[in-house]
Structures are given as structure tokens and as C-alpha cells.
Design a protein that fits this description.
CATH architecture of the largest domain in chain A: Orthogonal Bundle
Radius of gyration of chain A: 20 Å
Oligomer: homodimer
Number of domains of chain A: 2
Number of strands of chain A: 0
CATH superfamily of the largest domain in chain A: Tetracycline Repressor, domain 2
Structural class of chain A: mainly alpha
Shape of chain A: elongated
Chain lengths: 204, 204
DNA sequence: GTCTATACTCTGATAGAC
DNA sequence: GTCTATCAGAGTATAGAC
């Protein structure tokens, strides 16, 4: 019973990873309903029944991908240190979030698909963990503003703006590249642009 | 032959609109592949065969929705006047784009779905009209910067940032509301936040 | 113009041979 | 553990009655 047991053989572990990688590829491009097991199996290089030997259902594959994704996504925000220098901490967060978007665009699009479709499989996580973490970090931002160490601005919308600006480069990648044309490095340019933007926005 | 003929009866016109409205609802929530004619027909209050009397295929319905969407989406940018006051023109663009996101969130999500999935049905429009318009308006922004009327920043990424920040409130609506909690008006707060952001970014 | 009935394909999932 | 064969249901689309 591979799907339940904890210890897995090397080949089982490898097949699971192949499946999850293929599923990430397909789900991130077509959303949950638009993705098919046929596609996933083909990308993974397995037959459909063999795929279903490792996971009990399409839903189960998707769930494994989503579980943990939010954590990975929020780790950079968690790392924002209340004891650090405000501008350094915020710029560090922007930098780490942009690096995530550059290095894990499929994960970003999987997340975007889920939210776009009303977050049917992440509702409670968003209203729970995400809400609480943002509330906690907003309080820190607000304190920094009260102390005059950064300029005053709505803390939650400041966080939204970091999400929007970094994820845009992963989620709308084809649009960004089509508009820029050849000979550009979108993420490198974005890094410089966002540094300027948040520096001017938050300079005390 | 209603699908081809130009002049349509009142009832035909009304049914076409009902179908397109229903299709917008369903496509924007599930993407092209995830949407089904059953759903669209049910939302429109018609039978599935009846829906297919007005449109030859699912693809055709989707195409009608996309056609013209990009134009509507870009009109606010087109309206940016090279002869106007730079900050007023840019803030006006931000304002109109945010209003679009607030008033037409389904259109915004339809567009987001299309881009997210690699723009299979909009590629040429994006590489053509969109690219050209952004190139034209970027030149205007660059001239304003050269004249010292606004602060210097990468013009294309400035436009990207306006897209990202305004569309985020439509596309990630459920996340924004979940994080803010009850008693908030996301779009009103966004309006104030974005005014501050772009004013500080672009003040000469 | 609209409906019922239906053809035919795709999709998720299972059974059972090897 | 992996495959072939297959099922039941959903999906797009068409035929033809009214």
C-alpha cells in the first residue's frame, strides 16, 4: 500500500516525484478542472492506471501539491525580523519573494489558478494561517511607521503590493516577455525597478 | 442563420447576451478547458442544444468574449494624453484601470486565465496591438522623464506595475477580502494606497 | 426557434492478467 | 508494480421532431 505507508522504496519515491512534477506542470497551466490525468500521466512517462496506483485520485494529487505550497509561499514573510532595520527587512522580503517567482513560476501559477477560481481548496488556510500572519506582520510595519522609521502607508496594502508586483512577473510571464520584446531579462529589471519603487515609497 | 447574419431579432439579441454573460461567468471562474457548456447553458437559462444554435461551438463563444476584451482593457492606456500634465495623466490611468477592475472583475479574471495558460488564444494580439501601444506610451513616459517632469524609472515596468497592482484586486479578490477581514472596502482603500504609491514614486 | 433524443469522444477510476 | 481492457459518467456536438 504505497499511498499510505511512510517508508517508500527508491523507485517509488522517484515515481511519486515524477508524477507530482508532471502534475504541477499541467495543473499550473490548465487549473484543476482543465487538467486531465491523461496529460499528467503522459508528462510523467507513466500509464494512467500506474499513476493511480501511486495516488488514489486526481483530487489527491492536487491536494499534495497545494499542501505545503502556502507555507513555502509565506516563508519569506515569516522571515521579516521585527528587530531588524525596517527598510532592509522589507527590501529583503521583496527580494526573496521575487526570487521565488523567478525560480518557481509553476508554483506561483498553481496558486494563482486556485485563488482565481475562488480558492475552493484553500479557503480555510487563507482565512486562517495567511490572515493571521499578515495581521502579525502588519502590526510590525505599523509600529515602524509610528516610530517614524519608514513612511506611513496602509500596511496590509503594502503587503498586497509586494505580492502583486512580484507574482505578476511569474503569472503574466508571457505577457511581460511579449511586451518587452527580445533582449530583456524581466526578473533582473524587475529587481531594480522594485528596489526603486519601495525605497521611494517608504523613505522616512 | 443567426450566427452569421448581422441583423438579429430582439429575442435573438437578448439570448446572445444572456449566453455571453453566462459564459463570462463560467469561463472566468474555470478557464476555457474547465468550463462546460452544461454550466454555461444552465446559468443562461437555456438548453445546451439551444445554446449551440446561437454559437457553433464552445470555442466560438470564448472567442467572442476575448475579441474586444483587450481593446476595452487598453482604452484607459490609450487615453493617456501626451499633451497633458504627466502626473495627472498617469494618476488618471491608474484610477481608470482600478475602476475597470472593480466594475468588471469577471473580465479581468477571464483575461488572467488566458494569460496564465500561456495566452493560446491571444498570442498575436499581445505581441501586436499590446506591444505596440506599450512601446508608444513608454516613449511618452520617457520623454516626460527626460524633461524632468516626473522622476526617472523604467517606463515599461512602470506600466507593468500599474497592471499588476490594479488587477490584483480583481483577480485575487477572495484572498484580499480574507486577509483584510470584514468591514473593509478593498477598492476604496486601494485607490488611496495607489495614489500615495505612484505620487511618491514619480514626484520629480 | 426551441426542444428531446442521441451519437460519439473524453475522462476518472477499477478489474484483473502478468 | 505495471500493463491491457474496460466501465460509467460527463463532455461536445448533431439530428430531427415540433
Amino acid at each position: 500500500m504505497p499511498p499510505a505507508a511512510q517508508p517508500r522504496s527508491r523507485i517509488q519515491q522517484k515515481n511519486r516525484e515524477m508524477i507530482l512534477d508532471a502534475a504541477l506542470e499541467v495543473f499550473s497551466l490548465h487549473g484543476f478542472r482543465g487538467a486531465t490525468l491523461d496529460q499528467i500521466a503522459e508528462v510523467a512517462g507513466l500509464s494512467k492506471p500506474n499513476l493511480l496506483y501511486y495516488f488514489p485520485s486526481k483530487e489527491a494529487v492536487h491536494k499534495v501539491l497545494l499542501t505545503g505550497l502556502l507555507d513555502t509561499w509565506l516563508d519569506p514573510l515569516r522571515a521579516m525580523d521585527p528587530a531588524g532595520d525596517p527598510l532592509v527587512e522589507i527590501m529583503g522580503y521583496v527580494r526573496r519573494k521575487l526570487d521565488l517567482a523567478r525560480d518557481f513560476p509553476r508554483e506561483s501559477r498553481l496558486f494563482a489558478n486556485e485563488i482565481l477560481q475562488g480558492a475552493p481548496r484553500m479557503r480555510e488556510a487563507i482565512e486562517g494561517d495567511l490572515h493571521d500572519l499578515v495581521a502579525e506582520k502588519s502590526a510590525i510595519l505599523r509600529r515602524w511607521m509610528d516610530e517614524g522609521r519608514i513612511a506611513r502607508v496602509d500596511p496590509m496594502h503594502l503587503i498586497f503590493s509586494i505580492w502583486a508586483l512580484t507574482q505578476h512577473y511569474a503569472d503574466f510571464d508571457v505577457q511581460v516577455r511579449a511586451v518587452l520584446g527580445p533582449g530583456h531579462d524581466p526578473f533582473a529589471e524587475a529587481g531594480a525597478f522594485l528596489e526603486t519603487l519601495f525605497t521611494r515609497l517608504l523613505a522616512p
